[in-house]
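Field: COMPLEX_INPUT
Field: COMPONENT_COUNT = four
Field: RESIDUE_TOTAL = 424
Field: MODE = joint
Values follow.
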Amino acid sequence: MAEPTRPTRRQDIRRENEKTILVAAEKVFAEAGFGGATMQLIADLADLPKANLHYYFATKEELYRSVVQNIFEIWLQAANCFDAARGPIDGISAYIDAKMEISRRHPDGSKVWASEVMHGAPVLQDYMESTLREWTDGRVEIIRRWIEEGKMDPVDPRHLLYMLWAATQHYADFGHQIETLNGGKPLSDRQWREAKDNIKRVILTGIGARSV
Amino acid sequence: MAEPTRPTRRQDIRRENEKTILVAAEKVFAEAGFGGATMQLIADLADLPKANLHYYFATKEELYRSVVQNIFEIWLQAANCFDAARGPIDGISAYIDAKMEISRRHPDGSKVWASEVMHGAPVLQDYMESTLREWTDGRVEIIRRWIEEGKMDPVDPRHLLYMLWAATQHYADFGHQIETLNGGKPLSDRQWREAKDNIKRVILTGIGARSV
DNA sequence: TTGCAGCCTGACCGTATGGTCAGCTTTCAG
DNA sequence: CTGAAAGCTGACCATACGGTCAGGCTGCAA
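Field: COMPLEX_OUTPUT
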């Protein structure tokens, strides 16, 4: 070999297989839902024997839990964009960019997340009551301050956040509908940019954002 | 009996049982997804023997199809609000009202619809390619005219529609998340009104609506 | 009143699924 | 080199599910 890769250590094997399984699982859970997904389908997609999945993830629930937690991490990372911002135009623009990027790059993850929440968040309830609530409260506070400083109109911060989540996530969760209405073709680069610009423009104008 | 109800005719029995089953099915499909729903669960909720469900609906797929079609009807009815309007403020306000009412009164239906679309619309594909596409194209045309007439800013009509769908439907599909962030309590009448007003205000301001 | 068409259901069936396990191979520390 | 730990898997199992059906019950037209 040109590239004398260090022989695969046990740890590497484990990490690699877990990754493979999680990727396959995310796709199958997104396409079929938790109930419709089967370990066999995931195993086939991962090109591993079913028993091997059970070696790494004892139960279907545990595998699902791992998938959902992964997505939650990604979701939270997008949050950082919000923090460094000096004002609503910067902050909300960056957040919309980040969330639209997630919708585009991780549509399966978004769907699993949506599905989880729609079915009452059996797995994520703890996270929602702790991490998510704290994150949300923090952002609400930031928005409230922006309003006090006259950087935007007095819009209810919570409902504004819901609108941001909804508008961006929609492009992942309802991607199939959008694709169908787009003549059966996925959105092009240009169309994604238009979507993003539209959301930014309508929301930033809508809240009367007046400061970076 | 004080009320001398006409003795239940066969037709009535059929209609009533079908209704009972459909209501139960909608709830179970919403809570568990198609794959997670079982005929037994639906039968228990409808308080009927499982075999009786199969008497009215031959297969689980057929029952699911009926549920989804019902929802599609309701969804389309909300569309009418759009048509009679003279301008964006009237039309979009009425549409948001209608869709928020659906999110509030038929959250289960909304979830089933969302789930169906998320999983690639196996049942609804035909409807999406015909009825939904026509409806959408019609509304796009109306919005385009409003823009030409200077009644609102030149916003991409499709992305505006997606935003309307997303913002309103979010309150049904992600109702559990919203409830959790609301201290575990469902939104009150006042909070629903605030949600509605916020969406209206942000979007109508955001598109620069200038005419009823 | 009668006959029959439509309504109802307990018991049953084949299959697919999540999960187990005994025993194999591979890795690697000592 | 060795042996123990980790990785792997074909074959298997119990269960739960969608669906069937024979046969009983009910409404109602004639």
